[in-house]
Amino acid sequence: MNDYRILVVDDEEDLCEILKFNLENEGYEVDTANSAEEALKMDICNYNLLLLDVMMGEISGFKMASMLKKDKKTARIPIIFITAKDTENDTVTGFNLGADDYISKPFSLREVAARVKAVLRRTWQEETERVPEQVAYQTLVLDIIKKKVCIDGEETPLTKKEFEILLLLLQNKGRVFSREDILNHIWSDEVYVLDRTIDVNITRLRKKIGVYGKCIVTRLGYGYCFETE
Q1: CA 55 → CA 11, 36, 116, 201, 219, distances in Å?
Q2: What does the alpha-carbon distance between residue 147 and residue 228 come to, in Å, rounded to a whole number?
Q3: What is the mean pLDDT of the chain?
Q4: C-alpha torsion 63→50→98→91, nearest 10
Q5: Nearest 5°: phi and psi at 200?
Q6: For residue 17, which phi and psi values (nearest 5 degrees)?
């Protein structure tokens, strides 16, 4: 846990110091701010978790969280609200803003430490399991979100099936896929597809990706793979 940085934002200075002391004893690196205005002047992108009080000055914890969630650079940082307000509406508001947990005052320090640990573990797992937005080999880049392929920064138009074949091979460099494997991955919903269809798509794909075409290697009797140098 030693690599995690936490920012505690609360207008009660004593509470900030208590949380800082105890979370540092748990192995975290902790900074504090006594208002949302102060916190927003800090480099929030560098924190792995925010402990955020709801009832503060002109900018409430809810308002600050809303601002952070609208910014792509801070949208994924987990937030735990800490507040004396514990009504159902307040809790729902917090979760609707993207809060990861909600702790009502008074609370035990052991409870805070346990919830911090749980949120960090969950978000860390989500990040490691997150599907990458791009897959690349040298200057060949597949944008999985936009469904496009670029070589040396120039887009190379591919059909849907060609894109999916290239993505399958590039995500599994060195692994040989039989025609049956490719059929199951790419044409899983098709009733009847000839093996020849795969060969034709591979041939077209090799031509379209230019110098990288040679990376799509045929293993006679086995299938195809993307082989790097």
Answers
A1: 8, 10, 20, 60, 65
A2: 22
A3: 87
A4: -80
A5: -65, -45
A6: -70, -35
Q: Distance of CA 52 to CAs 6, 36, 58, 73, Å?
A: 10, 9, 15, 18
> Which residue is listed with tokens 């798509």?
201
Q: Report pTM.
A: 0.55
Tokens matching residue 99:
């809060």
pLDDT grade for 91, boundaries at 50, 70 and 90: low
Q: Which residues contact 72 (CB under 8 A, 6 or more apart)?
A: none
